[in-house]
Specification:
three-stranded antiparallel beta sheet; Aldehyde Oxidoreductase, domain 3; elongated; alpha+beta
Length: 122
């Protein structure tokens, strides 16, 4: 995803400035080490549940002050440094936008993305 382009598209909407005072972005990338034990990871296999991601997006769009949410989840075998998950949340004020990004991110990771780490043999 080209984050700058997607934000520019949001800003180009006629009603944007009447509804948005904050845009938060999450750009998750593949780590070169395992969260469990910090062992070296050569790649991960990722399977997003796009239907569940869309359900979650629609649920969080109903929160007070939220203008739009854009989510892009990558699938397949990804290497350290590769982009994994993008979330853009646009809304009126930080008290509305920050918790939506945090909770949506946690819910997507918990409910809508399966991944398996491939360990390095070196």
């Amino acid at each position: 995803m080209d984050i700058s382009k997607r934000i520019a598209e949001l800003k180009a909407r006629a009603d944007f400035s009447n509804h948005v005072g904050m845009i938060l972005v999450h750009n998750g990338t593949v780590r070169a080490w395992s969260r469990a034990d910090r062992s070296k990871v050569s790649a991960i296999e990722v399977i997003p549940d796009y239907d569940r991601i869309n359900q979650l997006r629609n649920e969080f769009l109903q929160h007070n002050g939220i203008y739009d949410i854009i989510v892009e989840a990558k699938s397949g075998t990804l290497k350290p440094g590769d982009d994994l998950l993008f979330i853009i949340v646009a809304g009126d004020i930080r008290e509305h936008v920050k918790p939506v990004l945090a909770e949506l991110l946690d819910r997507i990771k918990l409910e809508a993305v399966s991944k398996r780490e491939l360990r390095s043999t070196t």
